[in-house]
Design brief:
Length: 114
């Protein structure tokens, strides 16, 4: 299973590992900005896409809207993972599947699927 995270300040892989998530069954990539996000998502074809809201140059909400309006294959699970619940709610309303405070991402049920 492939995981792609767009997050500009927190090491998401380290958060998952420190939260006890076994990542050996996952291929994980993190981008620290959202430049060329459609191209990156199209090429990597993640099963799980994790989006931070406050990320340059394109906010997570706008990345989400851009994906849904494009021809890029929609990831199976899109996770809104901002530290602000209002931002997660905005992404949920726009089509994200899960909204969670980023520091709690290791608690997502999706990690049990591996």
């Amino acid at each position: 299973m492939k995981i792609l995270a767009f997050e500009d300040s927190v090491d998401i892989e380290a958060l998952l590992i420190s939260g006890g998530v076994e990542l050996s069954n996952f291929e994980f990539k993190q981008y620290w900005d959202s430049q060329n996000y459609l191209e990156i998502i199209s090429e990597f074809a993640p099963d799980i896409l994790m989006l931070d809201h406050y990320m340059p140059p394109t906010r997570g909400l706008d990345v989400l809207k851009g994906i849904l309006a494009s021809d890029v294959k929609r990831p199976e699970i899109i996770v809104a993972m901002s530290s602000a619940s209002m931002a997660n709610n905005a992404m949920l309303n726009a089509g994200a599947d899960v909204g969670i405070v980023k520091f709690d991402i290791s608690k997502l049920k999706v990690w049990d699927q591996s």
